[in-house]
Design brief:
Number of strands: 11
Strand order of the largest sheet: 4-3-5-11-6
Largest sheet: 5 strands, mixed
Strand content: 5-15%
Distance between the termini: 81 Å
Structural class: alpha+beta
Length: 552
C-alpha cells in the first residue's frame, strides 16, 4: 500500500466513525411512529409509485375537507421521491423508512465534520455540538423534509467552500447541483444563493466567473416552477412564498411593533431550547465578558414580558400562565441570546470571510424562522445548529486551552442527555398516538359502523390505516350508529353540534416521558407556536385525551 492510499484510508476512518456513531445513536428510535407531517410526505411517496411525474395529483383531507395536495403541501417533493425509491426496494415499514432518514442524517454529520476541517474548526467538537442538539435528534427521527435538506445544505456549502479555496470546478458543479436539490427538498434551500454569493465576493474581494455556477440551481428551480405551473396551474415556489406572506399577515393580531417583539422573543425561545447544549457549552467552557454582563438583563426582561399585561397577552394564549412556563420561557430566551452575544463578540474580534459565512448563515435562518415563515416552529431553526456549532468549535480550536477538557466533556455529556431526553419525549408522544389509534379502532369497530376522526398528523395516519375515515366538515355523511373521535392534543379540529351528539366516553393515553413537546394547555408547541411558545418542557404526568361521540 503506497503512502497516498494509506493517507486516504486514514482520512476515511474518522468519517466512518462519525457515520457509525450517528446511526447507532439513532437506532433506538428506528420503530418510531409516523409522526406529525410525515404522513403527507409518505402519501406523496405512495402516489409517486402510481404516477411518478404527477406527484401532487391527488386529493387529501388535511384541513377538514378534501382538496388537492398541490394546495395543501407547501414543500417541494424531492424528499418524497427519495422515500418512494427507498420503499420500492425495502418496503413501507416504519423501521425501513427511518433507516433511510438515518442515512441522510449520517451524511449530514459527515458533511459537518468535513466542513469543520475546511473552516479550521475542531471537527469532533463541531460534530458533537451539531448532532447532540434537541432539534437535530428530533428531526433525525421524523420522516419529513429535514433529513434531506440538512444533508444537501451542509454538503453544498462544503463543496462550494472547497471549490472556491482550491479553484476546483468539479466541486463547484457538485455544489450547484446540491443547492438545487436543497431547494427542491425544502424551499429554504433557495437562501443558499445569496449566502454563498456574499461569501464568495468577500473571499475573493471581487466578482469572479465561478459565480456562474450558481446558475445551475437557478435553472433547476426555474424548470421546476415551469413544470408545476403546467401540472397544477401555478408555480409551487411562488405559491409557497405567497402563502407564507399572506398567512403571516392574515393571522397577525397585533401592531407591527408588538408583532416584531413577539416574533423576536418567540424566536429566541425556540433557538434557546433547540440549541441549549451549544449555549451550555459556551457558558461553561468559553469565557466572554459580554455574556456575563448581557444574560442577566435578558433573563429579567424575558421574565418581565411574561407578567406585563400588554406583552403577556401576545406571548401566551392562556389567561393564567403557570410560573414554570414563564421560567422556561425566560431560560430559553436567555440561552438563545447566549448564542447571539457570543456570535457578535466573535464577529468583531476575529472577522474573516469564514466567520462572515457562519454569521450570515445563523442570522439568515433566524430571520426566516422568526419573521418570514408562516408559523414559528422548531423545524424552522434546525439549520442553525451546524453553523453555531462550527463557530464555537472554530473558536475553541484556535484558543490556547485544550480542545476537550473536563469542563468541555461535562458540558457535552449534559447536552447530549438533554437532547436525547427531548427526542425520547417526542418518540413516546408519537408512540402513544399510534397505540391510541389502534385501541380506539379495535374498541369501536363494528360491521355496520364507520369511525370518523377529527385532527390530523399521525393520528389520522394510523386511524385510517385501521379503517377509520377523516371527517369532512363541508359534507359530513355521519349515520346514527357511527362514531366521531376528537383528539384534544392535535391540530385542525372543529366544533360539533352538541345537541345532536351523545358522549360515549374518552380515552386517556399517558406519556411515559418526563418531557412534553406539544400541549397547548402547558404553552408547549414544538411543531407550531400556535400551540405555545415553548419548544419543550419538563412535566411528569402528561397524557393525551380522545373523546368519542355518537349521533343521537
Amino acid at each position: 500500500m503506497n503512502s497516498l492510499e494509506q493517507s486516504n484510508k486514514k482520512s476515511l476512518k474518522p468519517l466512518i466513525l462519525v457515520a457509525v456513531i450517528t446511526i447507532v445513536t439513532l437506532l433506538p428510535f428506528i420503530n418510531k411512529a409516523v409522526h406529525i407531517d410525515s404522513p403527507i410526505y409518505l402519501r406523496v411517496a405512495e402516489h409517486i409509485h402510481q404516477q411518478p411525474l404527477d406527484f401532487y395529483g391527488f386529493e387529501y383531507n388535511y384541513f377538514g375537507y378534501s382538496q388537492s395536495v398541490a394546495e395543501i403541501n407547501k414543500n417541494p417533493p424531492l424528499i418524497s421521491y427519495y422515500y418512494a425509491l427507498w420503499a420500492a426496494i425495502f418496503g413501507w415499514s416504519e423501521w425501513g423508512l427511518h433507516l433511510s432518514a438515518f442515512l441522510l442524517i449520517a451524511l449530514s454529520t459527515v458533511g459537518v465534520y468535513k466542513l469543520a476541517e475546511s473552516l479550521k474548526a475542531d471537527p469532533k467538537l463541531a460534530f458533537a455540538l451539531t448532532f447532540f442538539t434537541p432539534y437535530y435528534l428530533v428531526a433525525s427521527t421524523n420522516l419529513m423534509a429535514e433529513p434531506g435538506v440538512v444533508a444537501t445544505w451542509v454538503w453544498s456549502i462544503y463543496l462550494w467552500v472547497n471549490g472556491i479555496s482550491k479553484s476546483r470546478n468539479k466541486d463547484l458543479i457538485g455544489a450547484g447541483i446540491l443547492i438545487g436539490c436543497a431547494g427542491l427538498t425544502k424551499y429554504i434551500g433557495l437562501a443558499l444563493i445569496p449566502l454563498l454569493l456574499v461569501y464568495s465576493i468577500a473571499k475573493a474581494k471581487k466578482v469572479r466567473l465561478h459565480l456562474l455556477f450558481l446558475f445551475i440551481p437557478l435553472a433547476m428551480w426555474g424548470a421546476f416552477e415551469l413544470w408545476t405551473s403546467h401540472l397544477y396551474g401555478q408555480g409551487l415556489i411562488f405559491e409557497a412564498c405567497y402563502y407564507s406572506v399572506t398567512t403571516k399577515m392574515g393571522t397577525a393580531q397585533h401592531s407591527g411593533s408588538l408583532r416584531f417583539l413577539k416574533s423576536t422573543f418567540v424566536g429566541l425561545s425556540y433557538v434557546g431550547g433547540g440549541l441549549l447544549p451549544i449555549s451550555l457549552f459556551i457558558l461553561v467552557c468559553l469565557r466572554e465578558r459580554l455574556l456575563l454582563w448581557g444574560l442577566a438583563p435578558i433573563f429579567l426582561l424575558s421574565l418581565g414580558l411574561c407578567y406585563y399585561p400588554p406583552t403577556r397577552t401576545i406571548l401566551f394564549s392562556s389567561r393564567i400562565v403557570s410560573f414554570d412556563s414563564t421560567l422556561f420561557f425566560a431560560l430559553y430566551c436567555s440561552a438563545g441570546s447566549t448564542i447571539f452575544l457570543f456570535l457578535l463578540s466573535r464577529f468583531w474580534k476575529n472577522y474573516d470571510s469564514e466567520v462572515l459565512l457562519l454569521t450570515l448563515w445563523i442570522f439568515g435562518i433566524f430571520t426566516f424562522g422568526s419573521y418570514v415563515n408562516w408559523t414559528q416552529n422548531a423545524r424552522s431553526f434546525l439549520l442553525m445548529a451546524p453553523p453555531t456549532a462550527l463557530l464555537v468549535a472554530r473558536y475553541k480550536s484556535l484558543s490556547v486551552s485544550k480542545p476537550i477538557d473536563f469542563k468541555s466533556l461535562f458540558a457535552l455529556i449534559l447536552g447530549a442527555f438533554i437532547s436525547l431526553s427531548v427526542a425520547w419525549g417526542d418518540y413516546e408522544w408519537a408512540d402513544s398516538i399510534r397505540r391510541s389509534a389502534k385501541s380506539i379502532t379495535k374498541r369501536y369497530t363494528r360491521a355496520n359502523r364507520t369511525i370518523w376522526l377529527q385532527g390530523h398528523w399521525d393520528f389520522q395516519w394510523y386511524m385510517t390505516k385501521n379503517g377509520a375515515k377523516a371527517l369532512d366538515r363541508t359534507s359530513p355523511v355521519v349515520r346514527g350508529n357511527d362514531i366521531i373521535v376528537v383528539p384534544h392534543n392535535n391540530t385542525i379540529t372543529f366544533a360539533l353540534q352538541a345537541s345532536n351528539l351523545k358522549w360515549m366516553g374518552e380515552l386517556k393515553s399517558p406519556n411515559s416521558s418526563f418531557i412534553i413537546v406539544n400541549d397547548s394547555t402547558e404553552e408547549v408547541g414544538y411543531y407550531s407556536s400556535m400551540g405555545g411558545n415553548l419548544p419543550y418542557k419538563i412535566k411528569n404526568d402528561s397524557y393525551d385525551v380522545y373523546s368519542m361521540y355518537r349521533l343521537k
